[in-house]
TrEMBL record, chain A:
Species for this entry: Caenorhabditis nigoni
Protein origin, superkingdom: Eukaryota
Domain SKP1 component dimerisation as annotated: residue spans: 127-170
UniProt-listed PANTHER family: SKP1
Extent of Low complexity compositional bias: 8-25, 178-188
Keywords: Ubl conjugation pathway
Keyword Lipoprotein carried by entry: no
UniProt domain SKP1 component POZ: residue ranges: 38-96
Gene (name only): Cnig_chr_III.g8742
Function: Probable essential component of SCF (SKP1-CUL1-F-box protein) E3 ubiquitin-protein ligase complexes, which mediate the ubiquitination and subsequent proteasomal degradation of target proteins. Regulates cell proliferation during embryonic and larval development.
Family that this chain belongs to: Belongs to the SKP1 family.
Comp. bias (Basic and acidic residues): 165-177
Protein name: Skp1-related protein
A single BP term in Gene Ontology: protein ubiquitination
Pfam families, alphabetized: Skp1, Skp1_POZ
UniProtKB/TrEMBL annotation, chain B:
Origin superkingdom: Eukaryota
This protein's name: F-box domain-containing protein
Domain F-box positions: 16-46
Pfam families (alphabetical): F-box
Gene behind this protein: Cnig_chr_V.g21593
Organism name: Caenorhabditis nigoni
């Protein structure tokens, strides 16, 4: 995790780092919450930064955690890779309380990271970041031919789609037959 | 490393489509039937195409800087979008299929403007001269064409411009 005044990472809930002192410090001390991903590394994030995530913001509002409770119970996001959650936390910290710029050049350029980021951001309901990510996804195929797009986005051919559809129908048929047989067995 | 685009949530994918320019969207639509249907059902509006026929080639214009040239002897289209000429190949796709595809993704059954270079003589046209596979002959010299199968096409004639209204995009598909 990049060093920011709002957060830190560790294998266990981390001790709050000292917030920077400044003349314009808010009167009310800022609350901090903790999140971890698949790698169990805990990230400490301010409530202000987490406001970007509608999901986490909703969880905070509903749970009414005190800071101590929040520290003891980090929000678990087991479906999100640690490095992806790190990116999300960094983005939230960088854009805390700021108007979001029309473009964000700090998003990952690696395709696989970008797609994982889209899934994570969609799950966490971070609308602005999702918008940037989707734009980045669209930029991947800018100026490309259909063959190149098919390769970049792994688009199945018509024949592959038809084969997958047949396979799905066959599987559904087998499942339905299995359920019927089970129901008949129960009836006996 | 390639990535499965269909693994991202549908709404996000639709937003990505929304961010693409029309040329990229058309390229995407040509990837498969599924991608064609996705473009067709998306909220993106593709302007109606205009066509210009010159002997064996058909030039489809989507936007001033987006033109596709269809040749009768290849399963490909030439794309002109300001960065030189690109060739997109689509095995098995004829001129008719490409036109049907463009009509389909623009959700239109009409080519609003059709210009025919050096064919604008009111005399019986041979099917091979205009839009391969669609057989028609001029019934009168004004506003009505009839295809060889008896179905009528509506046509509007203007100065140097003929507008054909096909019954549906399927009229252009392979029988």
């Amino acid at each position: 995790m990049s060093s920011t005044e709002q957060g830190t990472s560790s294998a266990a809930p981390a001790e709050p780092t000292t917030a920077p002192e400044s003349a314009a410090a808010p009167e009310v001390p800022e609350s901090f919450y903790y999140v971890h991903g698949k790698d169990k590394v805990v990230h400490k994030v301010s409530a202000g930064a987490l406001q970007h995530s509608a999901l986490i913001h909703g969880m905070i509002s509903n749970l009414g955690y005190t800071e101590e409770q929040a520290k003891a119970n980090p929000f678990p996001f087991e479906n999100i890779d640690g490095d992806i959650l790190q990116m999300v936390v960094d983005w939230c910290n960088q854009h805390k309380g700021k108007p979001t710029p029309p473009e964000d050049t700090n998003l990952p350029k690696q395709k696989e990271k970008l797609f994982d980021l889209v899934l994570a951001v969609n799950y966490l309901e971070i609308k602005e970041l999702l918008t940037y990510c989707c734009k980045q996804v669209a930029m991947m195929v800018k100026g490309k031919s259909p063959e190149e797009i098919r390769e970049i986005w792994m688009i199945p051919t018509d024949a592959e789609d038809e084969a997958a559809e047949k396979e799905a129908k066959k599987r559904a048929g087998k499942e339905a037959a299995g359920e019927t047989a089970a129901a008949a067995g129960d009836a006996k | 490393m390639p990535i499965r685009i269909f693994s991202i949530p549908a709404a996000d994918f639709q937003y990505a489509l929304h961010c693409m320019d029309i040329g990229d969207l058309i390229a995407f639509s040509l990837c498969s039937n599924r991608t064609k249907n996705l473009v067709k059902s998306s909220s993106r509006k593709i302007d109606p195409i205009s066509a210009q026929i010159d002997e064996n080639t058909i030039l489809l214009k989507i936007e001033p800087n987006l033109q596709f040239l269809l040749r009768e002897d290849s399963f490909s289209i030439e794309l002109h979008r300001g960065n030189g000429i690109e060739i997109w190949r689509k095995p098995g796709f004829t001129q008719r299929d490409f036109i049907a595809h463009f009509l389909s993704i623009s959700r239109s059954s009409i080519i609003p403007e059709l210009r025919m270079i050096e064919l604008f003589q009111w005399e019986p046209m041979k099917s091979e001269d205009v839009l391969k596979g669609i057989k028609f002959q001029i019934m009168d010299h004004k506003r009505r064409l009839t295809r060889a199968d008896g179905e009528e096409l509506l046509v509007t004639v203007g100065p140097g411009v003929v507008v054909f209204e096909f019954l549906s995009p399927q009229d252009l598909s392979i029988q």
